[in-house]
């Protein structure tokens, strides 16, 4: 027996279709920018660009997971959000390791490459953020997608600031500091996503995955 009226179900189906289309678009954008930034980051010797490249890769994987669980029950979507939260946490820990390595090596990245690629990444992530804005207050799975994109825009601005810092000081420390900030953002986002996903997993649901309201 349907759990809603025909009009409501049709509306939900249309909304899900729009969300699926948006996820495919942002998935393609993130996969493309991962390839661009990983090459540029290695060439420029920039910890911040390499960290941002890995972030693009993690986001592309997360969008793929979101597409897979779209339309499934609340608990399945919450489990997917848990996986994404854990991946964001691992990304943060990896960046911390990269920061330590570059600090010990005294790397001075190419600020011009950092700035140019940072601008391109900012444009790409701003487009993703605009596309996902309508779903920023959804369940843990939708919210995790929004948080990833929001953090990416902040990270891109920080990378551009790091490029200016490297140019002005001739030191790699601005790059290292920004990479550290990106790690903290990833860890904070991971905690937020996992906390909401755990709350949703504790929420009782009916056999068809619909939350039971008390």
TrEMBL record:
Q: Which InterPro entries match?
A: Cation_efflux_TM (IPR058533), Cation_efflux_TMD_sf (IPR027469)
Keyword terms: Membrane, Transmembrane, Transmembrane helix
Q: Which SUPFAM superfamilies match?
A: Cation efflux protein transmembrane domain-like
| Keyword Protein biosynthesis part of the UniProt annotation | no
GO cellular component terms, semicolon-separated:
membrane
Name where it's found: Membrane
> Matching Pfam families, A to Z?
Cation_efflux
Q: Which Gene3D superfamilies match?
A: Cation efflux protein transmembrane domain
**Where is each Cation efflux protein transmembrane domain found?**
23-201
Q: Which Gene Ontology MF annotations are present?
A: monoatomic cation transmembrane transporter activity
This protein's record includes keyword Membrane: yes
Q: What is its main location?
A: membrane
Q: How does it sit in the membrane?
A: Multi-pass membrane protein
Q: Tell me which domain of life the UniProt entry assigns to the organism this sequence originates from.
A: Bacteria
What is the designated name of this protein?
Cation efflux protein transmembrane domain-containing protein
- To which species is this protein native? Pseudooceanicola algae
